[in-house]
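Pasting as-is:
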Amino acid sequence: VPGRKAVASADYYQGFLPNAGNGKRVQRYVEEWAVALREMVALEPDHLLPAHGESISDDRAAIAEVLSVHAEALEHIVAHTLDGLNARVRQDVVADSVTLPAHIADHPTLNEQYVSPNDISRMVIKQYCGWWDDIPSHWSPARFDQQAAAIAELVGGVDALVAHARELVATDPVMACHFVDWAWFADEGNRETGRAVIEIYVRRIADTQANTQEALMYLDHMTAVQLAVDS
């Protein structure tokens, strides 16, 4: 609204790390997102009106700061990701290695609420790369349930996978989830395995590193498992 020197930022700025890497949504263009933030700064607004969160009024410097910090964070993630891809670093390593620059990492408007810098990096990878994830066997893979069944057979059955997942969950909930997923997809509908899935993903959600979108995805999975074992 030029006459009032006001910018309605929609979801480009909401007061937390932008939701620019949502794993359950269509492509989000991180570079263009940063450009939009820079364009808002150039307008020199006196009022910033996000679609969610608190507005900022009568403080042009504060508005320029928060928009610029968000733009810098996204630009850094993009640069890190593209540098890694161009150096032929495996995609999962590229995304896993992203951190924000030290001078903005603790900025109060960059807290991880819905997504992480790693999630945003994965969205950049999705834009620039095809569906292949750099793992040779994943080009023409066996179905995941077939892989899971083979792994279960190798270790002595789904019960062995579940037992190991429960041993790991206190110290390595991420790896525990891999084991319990193999157990579940090797024998979907197994009631005991279903209990283990829910138990272990509850622990995963309790991990302070899990953001909102991640937790919602785990809850969806837990609900589907519960429905399967109840049917």
